[in-house]
Each structure stands twice: as C-alpha cells, then as structure tokens.
Amino acid sequence: MYHSDYIIILCVIIVFALLSRRISASLLSLPMVFMGAGMALDALSHDLVPMDIEHELTRTIAEITLIIVLFADASVIKLSSLKRNFAIPARMLLIGMPLTILTGTLLARWASPELAWSTALLVAAILTPTDAALGQAVVSSPSVPQRIREGINVESGLNDGLAVPIILAAALMSVAATGTSVAHAPDNLWLFAALQLTLGPLVGIAMGWGFARLLDLAIERATITVVHQGILFLAVAFLIYLAAEAAGGNGFIAVFLGGLTFGNQLRHDATFIEEFMESEGQLLTMATFLIFGAVMVPLALEFASWKTLVLALLYLTVIRMLPIWLSLSGLGLSAWEKIFLGWFGPRGLASILFALLIYSDYPIPGSDDILASVVLTVMISVVLHGISAQPMARWFGRRKKP
C-alpha cells in the first residue's frame, strides 16, 4: 500500500468518528460506510492489497474480528433472562437452521442444475450462519424486546460453529467427486463433528468460569488496573479459541459459550467490556469491511451472474425467513415478531471466513462462483440490513402496547 492509501483510510476513519452520532441515527451503518470506502479505494488503486496476500489478509482479520465480537456479545447476555426465553434461539438453531440449509441446497440446485448436490449443500451451509453485528441497531435497541434481541444474538453466536462440520463434509464430498483429496482432511468425519460440538463447549465454559474467578480475585486484591481488565478480556477470548482448536473442539462455539460464562460469572463491574467493543471492537470491524469492500467485492462482481444475484436475494429472504417462521410456530409469537426474527439474519463475518477457507484449501470446481455468491450475499446484506435496522427497530417500538 502507498502512503496516499493510508492517508485516505485514516481520513475516512476520522470523518466517520467526527460524524458518528449523526451516522448512528441515520440509515447508514458502520459496515456500509467502510465497505463503500473499500470499494472506492479499489477503484482509485487496484493494487491496494498485493494479490498474493489479499485472501489471507481478509481471512485473518475476519477471524480475529469474529472471535472478539462473539466473546464480547456473549459476555453481556444475562443467563437469567435467557433461561426464560431460550425456546426462541433453541428452535431457530435446532429446527430453523437445518431447514434453512435444506431449502438453500434445493434452491441452489434449482438455480444451477449442473451444480453437484454436495456443492449446493456447501453453498447453503456457508450462507446459513448469521452475523448480529450487521444489525447492531436492532440488537442494542431498547425498542426491541429483550427476548427478541437475545434470540438474534444467541442464534448468531452458535450457528457459526454448528455449521462447520456440515461445511467441511460438503467440501470433502465435492473434492472427492473430482477424484482428488485434501491432505488435512479428518480421518473420521463423524468423530471430528462430535469432538467439535462437545469439546468446544467444554473448553469455553471451563475457561470462561476460571478466568472470571481469577479476575474477581485480582479486583478484590487490587492487583489489576481498569485498563488491564480490557487487555485480559482480549487475551482470554483468543486463548479460549486457540485452546478449543488445539483440543479438537470448535473455537467459535467455545468463544461464544466462554464469553457467556465469563460475563455471567464475573461478580464485579464489567463496563470495560462495552468500552472495549466501542473502541477496539469498532476499529476491527472497520478494518474488516474496508478490506472486504476493497478486495472481495470487486472479485464477486467479476464472477457475478444473474444466478448468483438471484441466489443472494433468495438466501436473504425466502430461504431464511420461511424456515424461521416454521421453527417458531407454537411459541405464542406474533406474526410481526416472526417476520422480524426471520429478516434479521444478516450474513457477514462467518460467511466471508468460511468461503475464504474453502476457496484457499479445497480444490472444488466452480469455487470462483461459490465465492462470488457468498460475497454478493454479504454485500447485499450489509446494505439491506443496515438501512432497515433503525426503521424496523422504531417500528417495533410503535407496535408495543402502551
């Protein structure tokens, strides 16, 4: 990158900071602004990121941001409230998610009959996980009932990890259909899936509880400063992720459940979590969507077709909303609440990360088209969910009974 590129990026951050209050009250969102800035930078400088490192750089930053966002978001969820309303995220994960993957597979195959069933399943599994950060105005709005906000947050926190075994299985089947193999593939996929879904939660809960106790002890004995509480928080998030991955579990599930345990077991004031997300967390999100706009969007537009556009729109509407509506039947939710929960399934960091993982590690025919479908879906989601978050949250408030 040239000095002029850095100057432009820093100027965008400064302008955003100066106008942040106005922007947060408008239809614009942070991901929209920085994705647009990245696209503009690419138009001005096509060599913004060297070709040989652009995918790895995007993947690394997306992974770091996702770890921190999952841990921080989970840390502020109150288990006492979640226990009363756990049926909503449980139904969305256990019924809505499989139905979404099934519907997505069928429609991907319908749009591209030449696509192998395993590849159609792969696309559907990559595009099923949601990203609550893209609808931050909804998750943080007091106009939206707490049970709805927590449902969106918990679903987005756990569906990333639950999708991993399905994504890996579909990728391996797609590779096997070509007669090739992948060196780092697990020997036993069923054992791999079982370990991912059991060791991840165990590591996350155990480490979240242990570090909450340690931090409480350090605060009581006055051995830690307020500033270093935030640093410890950051280090714990990454330590949980790496420990879970080293043990054979899923790091994303571990991070979310670790954050949930950490936040609920900590007895002392935890305002440093919100302060951290309002500064360092925001900066990472800026970097992620800036690079996404500069690197991934131009690639998607290069390989985009009417099929990828139709699939992107279907994944954000019918494929998501119908299964969620069905999964929430019988819970006493109003039609508006079910529409609201179905619509706010934005696609973001997890889908980007999984698509880049498959693109770089698995020799699948048509991988350019797969990446284009995913990136186009995320790109449209950033815009549609960004501009609809504030109005729909306010509309929710107006629908409340006086």
TrEMBL record:
A GO term, aspect molecular function: antiporter activity
Alphabetically ordered keywords of this record: Antiport, Ion transport, Membrane, Transmembrane, Transmembrane helix, Transport
InterPro entries named among the record's database cross-references: Cation/H_exchanger_TM
Residues that span the membrane, as ranges: 6-23, 61-80, 92-111, 161-183, 189-212, 247-263, 283-303, 309-328, 340-358, 370-393
Keyword Ion transport: yes
Limits of the Cation/H+ exchanger transmembrane domain: 14-395
Annotated GO CC locations: plasma membrane
Subcellular compartments: Cell membrane
GO BP, sorted A to Z: proton transmembrane transport
Membrane topology term: Multi-pass membrane protein
Pfam family membership, one: Na_H_Exchanger
Stated name of the protein: Sodium/proton antiporter, CPA1 family (TC 2.A.36)
Organism for this UniProt entry: Halomonas cupida
